Amino acid sequence: MKKYDLISRLKSLAPPLRLSPFAFCLLLISCTDNIKDTESVNAFIEQMATKHQFDKSELDDWFETVEIKQDILKRISSPSESMPWYKYRKIFLTEARINAGVQFWRDNAPALAAVEQHYGIPAEIITAIIGVETLFGKNTGNHRVIDALSTLAFAYPPRSKFFVSELENFLLLCRDEHISPAEPLGSYAGAMGLPQFMPSSFRAYAVDFDNDNRRDIWHNNSDVIASIGNYFAKHHWQTGKTIAVPVTAKDKNYKSALNKDLKPNLSLTELESLNLIISRQLPLDSKVKLLSFELQQGEELWAALDNFYVITRYNHSPLYAMAVYQLSLSILNKKGSYP
Asked: If you count Cβ atoms within 10 Å of the first and of the last residue's Cβ in the chain, which end, N or C, has fewer?
């Protein structure tokens, strides 16, 4: 069936099905895998032309090539952060990834040292972020960013508002950086480069560290390292402060303190009142968040501090933050053991 025959057929079905304009748009998109000439896309193009003075005909040309990717819709529905910790941990805390982290640190030692000096973010944390995100550049994604963001903006209603905003930021960063929107590749969610920045994060935190008038998070490791350092600094990393410490429970009283909020909210006195034993001494004014990580048998309890919370600003998952933290320690220890 030709595209325009399909459009006519769907329009004829729309009134008795009582489809809203947006639902009709999604139905059309899902049937054609092409988003051009749908109501929500045309409205977005008009907005970009009016609000940001983009050339409307140029936008039309870009979106003529954009396709809805069904594999993206499938993946966004089953993120790896839904795994239990004992499975999630095995993905990232491997000998190969640790060794690759040591090598990355050695290869980029001057930039890591300079960024640590400037922003106060430990080299091992920045290295671990890149290791978890992209295996040091090996897995940066093979989706066109414009396809990924458009798919989630116009065919994934649960997070449409967020991804429409990211698509707007993507087109703006491409204009700022003199990049064709058709070129950048990234993850299924539109995250880009070695640090996997979303477009809004790129615009807010990406750094041109070597002063070549480009913020290149795809190929320039100095820019990548500095951009992550800037991100953490802007989210209030506390230099030299503890990230997280294991705790041991005497009984089940602690369960009342477990919830999905990640902000440290317990004093050490409150922690002790739950019959929890902390594994190392912390400053008396410390605030901690009690977190539980699922093991094959039982669980692992941790008291997470403000710097752990900062890691969760990069990815709002305690599993992710713990993987970064533990990988950073493993890389640091392995690097120290090398001659």
From this structure: C
- For residue 209, pLDDT beyond 50: yes
CA 331 to each of CA 17, 76, 328: distance values in angstroms, whole numbers, following the listed order: 57, 30, 5
Catalytic residue (choose from 116, 124, 133, 166): 133
Q: Where are the domains of the chain?
A: 1-65, 244-304
Please state the φ and ψ torsions of residue 253, each to the nearest 5 degrees. Answer: -60, -30
Q: Which two tokens stand for residue 188?
A: 């299924």
**116 is known as an active-site residue:** no
176-194 pLDDT per residue, tens: 999 999 999 999 999 999 9
Strands 287-294 and 266-267: antiparallel
Nearest to 224, CA basis, from 310, 92, 126: 126
Assess contact for 247 and 290: CB atoms under 8 A.
yes
pTM: 0.88
